[in-house]
Amino acid sequence: MGKLGDMANKAKEMAKSHPDQADKGVTGAERMVDEGTGNKYDAQTDKAADAVRRSYEGGGTTER
């Protein structure tokens, strides 16, 4: 696996170990994108954030 894949796997393992912190990061990233686009893609960012949370078992609901 390449360096990017290795980094992604490490990030996922860290998120599994610290889901509360990972949720804060996901929420912050989602909020930043929403603010930068004027909430134009809010439904898409919600869906993406939920998918990320499910990938590390951090929950599936959007907390704003």
Strand content: under 5%
Q: Mean pLDDT, as a whole number? A: 89
Structural class: mainly alpha
Please mark out the parts with pLDDT under 50 across 5 or more consecutive residues, or reply none: none
Described by the principal axes of the CA atoms, the overall outline is globular
Q: Compute the gyration radius: what is it? A: 12 Å
Largest sheet: none
Count of helical regions: 3
Listing every helix as H and every strand as E from the N terminus to the C terminus, the arrangement reads HHH
Question: How much helicity do the residues have?
Answer: over 70%
Question: How many domains make up the 3D coordinates?
Answer: 1
How far from one another are the termini? Answer: 35 Å
DSSP strand tally: 0
Describe the structure.
The protein has 64 residues and is mainly alpha-helical. The chain has one domain (3-55). The chain is 73% helix and 0% strand. It has helices at residues 3-17, 19-36, 42-55. Helix 2 packs antiparallel against helix 3. It is globular and about 35 Å long. The termini are far apart.
